[in-house]
Specification:
The complex is a heterodimer of chains A (about 170) and B (about 375).
Chain A lengths: L1 H13 L3 E5 L2 E5 L5 H10 L4 E10 L4 E10 L4 E10 L4 E3 L8 H12 L2 E3 L24 H9 L7 H5 L3
Parallel strand pairs in A: 2-5, 6-7
Antiparallel strand pairs in A: 1-2, 3-4, 4-5
Chain B lengths: L6 E5 L10 E7 L2 E8 L7 H5 L4 H7 L8 H16 L5 H29 L3 H22 L9 E2 L2 E2 L7 H13 L10 H7 L7 H7 L3 H5 L7 H4 L20 H25 L18 E9 L2 E9 L7 E5 L1 H14 L7 H7 L4 H5 L1
Antiparallel strand pairs in B: 1-2, 2-3, 4-5, 6-7, 7-8
Helix pairs in contact in B: 2-3, 3-4, 4-5, 4-11, 4-13, 5-6, 6-11
The chains are: A alpha/beta (about 170), B alpha+beta (about 375).
């Protein structure tokens, strides 16, 4: 099987255990300090396209999971690299010098989740304007309350919709 | 009078050539010195909104990820939920999904086409493209009930309902009309060529480094398509080509669009031939909770790679839903790169040749 061969190759080179989740999908979990080292190896092994970067906010565990979705054009395989950091003052090394496209993904996540990507040259605001509150995509940010207080100060018209409890 | 060398020039956000998006240009005379994209005019926080809604509600919401091709995003979302719930999708529904996704690709390419033509002052192309697109919208209305927004027609578990009777013949008729767009490739008049040839050249190496995908990457000479490399639905059973062009300029992207429409027509014709007989039963959600786990789905939308990463903790709503739209990369790093050292008059041509959608960039 093609996946097994590539997973073995990554395992031998980096010493990490690679899980094959389904056809053409693999995932690996790494320590946040060893992330850059792993990413350099992954790129050398053909994972030249960083499709996306994502953050999942596990508020119950007090952690952020940062995910890097890689794609190898030569082997036709996707590799997800997962790492965890603390969610209070989250900070992690940037991979923008390894994959150029990481720059914009990291800038987005810096704005929406407040993650500091050390080494990214431009983390200026992207979608929001003059935002000075909790980063809006964190689980502890109540956007319903925000919308209600910011846009519907005079009770009435839209009240019904925002009163719906889920 | 004091001489000023550089001026700020704001392209957008309510400019007819830019949509809900703007670029701040630094210009020296007619020459663009540097460009800085300014997104966010359509940021609705869709990823966060999805955390508060059930998959069937989210399938309607997924229309709004990209205004210009809602069905493609319906499909990505539905596949993510299907993978998590392990749903068994009827073969007929899979074919219907492909037919709708490809029709959606054609109409999206026609908008691309119309925008590109109007960007360079070629109004005939603009009117033709939007006119032909309307035939497809009429078919959408008959099948889904909505001309532009299908209200989550492709949903977890299959599609909301089967096609109405006699729709196959109607679709074939529409394809016959769409095929006429081929004549636009032959409109190589000197005025059109001078506006597009050699304008906004994206080299293959830069395209890969800046994260370009889909038609933008293929017009720069890279042969890749998620439908072939990472097939989903029934694409592995269908026979089609991936058009590739080498030059990487606006004209290559213009021509590539037409060739992709032809391939989509081929796919739909085959699907209509191969689709299993019978009628689909009305879809009923078979789950109330999404099983714990995660799914990562990649699709080839009209603009490039469209991905969703969904995480569930076993609740009714997804715990996290990451949407990766192709336009984020095309409209910020790629556009900023291409606009450097261009002319002001070429800005709309370059902008539209990247097949932009501010909605899927901002989400």
């Amino acid at each position: 099987m093609h996946e097994k061969e590539i997973a073995g190759k990554i395992g031998r080179k980096t010493g990490m255990k690679v899980d094959i989740t389904r056809k053409r999908r693999m995932s690996v979990r790494t320590d946040s300090r060893g992330l850059r080292e792993f990413c350099v190896c992954a790129k050398e092994l053909g994972f030249g396209h960083l499709s996306a970067v994502s953050v999942t906010d596990f508020i119950g565990e007090g952690e952020y999971e940062i995910l890097y979705f890689l794609w190898s054009y030569q082997d036709g395989l996707a590799l997800t690299v997962k790492t965890r950091i603390g969610r209070e003052e989250p900070s992690i090394d940037s991979v923008s010098d390894i994959w150029g496209e990481a720059q914009i993904h990291e800038r987005e996540l810096h704005e929406l989740f407040g993650v500091e990507f050390v080494g990214n040259a431009d983390l200026s605001e992207l979608f929001l304007e003059g935002w000075n509150q909790t980063p809006p995509f964190r689980k502890d940010f109540d956007w319903r309350e925000y919308v209600r207080s910011r846009y519907y100060r005079n009770e009435g018209r839209e009240r019904g919709y925002f009163e719906v409890e889920k | 009078m004091t001489m000023r060398k550089e001026y700020d020039f704001l392209f957008g956000p309510a400019h007819p050539g830019s949509g809900n998006f703007s670029v701040m240009l630094k210009v020296d005379g007619e020459r663009v010195v540097s460009a800085r994209a300014d997104p966010g005019y359509l940021h609705r926080g869709l990823e966060k909104m999805m955390e508060y809604r059930s998959p069937m509600q989210n399938s309607v919401l997924s229309d709004r990820v990209c205004v210009l091709e809602p069905l493609a995003w319906n499909l990505v979302h539905a596949e993510a939920v299907d993978e998590m719930t392990g749903a068994d999708i009827p073969e007929r529904a899979r074919y219907l999904r492909v037919i709708m996704a490809e029709l959606s690709r054609i109409q999206s390419h026609l908008i691309w086409y119309g925008g590109m033509s109007s960007g360079i002052g070629f109004d005939t192309g603009f009117r033709l493209a939007f006119g032909y697109r309307d035939y497809i919208l009429e078919a959408f209305e008959r099948i889904t009930g909505g001309r532009v927004y299908p209200a989550g027609y492709i949903c977890p578990g299959g599609v909301r309902k089967d096609m109405p009777d006699g729709m196959e013949a109607k679709i074939l008729k529409v394809l016959g009309k769409a095929e006429k767009m081929r004549m636009l490739e032959k409109f190589g008049t000197p005025s059109l060529l001078s506006r597009m040839k050699g304008v906004g050249v994206l080299k293959s190496k830069d395209a890969l480094m800046l994260g370009a995908t889909g038609p933008v990457l293929r017009a720069s000479g890279m042969k890749t398509d998620v439908r072939k490399d990472d097939p989903y639905e029934v694409y592995n059973k269908l026979d089609f080509e991936i058009p590739v062009l080498e030059d990487g300029d606006a004209y290559s992207r213009y021509v590539l669009g037409i060739r992709e429409i032809e391939e989509s027509i081929k796919i739909i014709r085959q699907s209509l031939k191969d689709i299993p007989e019978g009628r689909l039963k009305r879809i009923k959600p078979t789950f109330t909770k999404i099983p714990e786990g995660e799914a990562y789905i990649r699709n080839e939308a009209a603009r490039g790679e469209a991905c969703i990463h969904m995480v569930s903790n076993g609740g009714e709503n997804p715990y996290r839903c990451k949407i990766r739209g192709p336009s984020l990369l095309h409209m910020i790093p790629v556009l900023e790169h291409l606009l450097k050292e261009s002319q002001i008059a070429d800005v709309p041509a370059i902008y539209w040749s990247l097949n932009p959608c501010p909605a899927d960039m901002d989400r």
